[in-house]
Amino acid sequence: MRKKINGMLMGAVVMIASFLFLCSLVSANSLGIDVSNWQDSTTQYFQGFKDKGATFTIVKLGGSGGGEGVHYKNPKASAQLASASSVGLNVGGYYWGQFGSSQSQAINMANLAISDAQRVGLKTSSVIALDYERGATSDKEANTQAIISFMETIEKANYKAVLYSGASYLRNYINVDEVGSVFGTRTWVASYKTTSLQTAPDFNYFPSMNYVAMWQYADNFYSVDGNVDLTNLMSDGDVKNNTPVKPTASNATLANNTVDGDMTYYVVKSGDSWYSIAKKFGLDMYQLAKLNGKTINTVIHPNDSLKLKGTLVNNASKTYTKTSTQLVTVDGVLGYNTILQLQKLYDMKVQDGKISNPSSLVKVLQKHLGVTQDGILGKNTINAMERKAGLKHTDGVLTRGGFTIKYIQRCINKGVKPF
User: Fold this and answer.
1) Do residues 236 and 326 touch, judged by C-beta distance below 8 A?
2) pLDDT tens digit sequence for 84-109
3) Is 32 helix (H, G, I), strand (E, B) or coil?
4) Which residues contact 138 (CB under 8 A, 6 or more apart)?
5) Coil, strand, or helix at residue 166?
């Protein structure tokens, strides 16, 4: 009888602990959406989602491989980011990368993602997520190494690298723990309770895996994908106040259809519309009209000259004051980005996000800590780090998720050397 009662008590404790954990998740989380060329780009559209509780938007920047071709550029990305930001939503981008296990292709596609982000004015420290859903090989480790190469390239450009895929795909083709050991909590996982309308996440269906920073819990949050940010991943996402407008069509298309091949001005022909011209040159029609001081309701006539590229001033200024930029996630993981930001903070010659054995970075830290400068991150060095972090009882071990690494990460975010 006592065993039964004890078992019942233990079960109750577990249930209460689980309930409190889920409640803490709900209270700490923020909702958001992700969009692509298929969705609208107006401020009214994004204001509508903000009114429904969204706090962020992730916009497709482009893609490579498979159906995306060599390099697809989302013609609406600039307008979508600017409009979302202008109504007060945090923003980020994602890029479809179908490179299988090829590290060279992964690096090339990451550089294309960076160029797309820069083209549309996405600021550094914002999220660039790798959309890895197709083309994986049967070699899980090779796939993982290619993904790490993509994400490292993104991080070196000072963007926040994130991995997106479906829960099943992540389990079958990617070593999520290995990615997490390098970058910390940076996985964005898709897993749906239902394909019907979901206005909020049901954490009873939360996908069980490590390093989940964001959960795409719905493919129908008022007709778009619904996401919940579990770690404030999107809190630093922003775009430049001056919105760049630039055609995504090929240079050949521009040269063959613009005045004297100048790639800047187009002469309206009979039968043209704002939509058809924008589609021809890979532009957002609302931006095209605004760039020319008009709206899409303005009638255009044959022989009118329209500007195809330029800047829309203050189109993306936010309606609130941003908090200070968070360079690293405070998750207690001594991963790639934390090490990279430490290397930058200490002006290291080599900034590769890695600690070798021995390490020049560790030698510098040891010098500041007043211990033997052998470049080895050993017990004596870690004890000194723990004391500097304020721990009274040290054990010479850097525990994942522990206080000392979080102390280092907080210092990095403040721009202060931890030692």
Assistant:
1) yes
2) 999 999 999 999 999 999 999 999 99
3) strand
4) none
5) strand
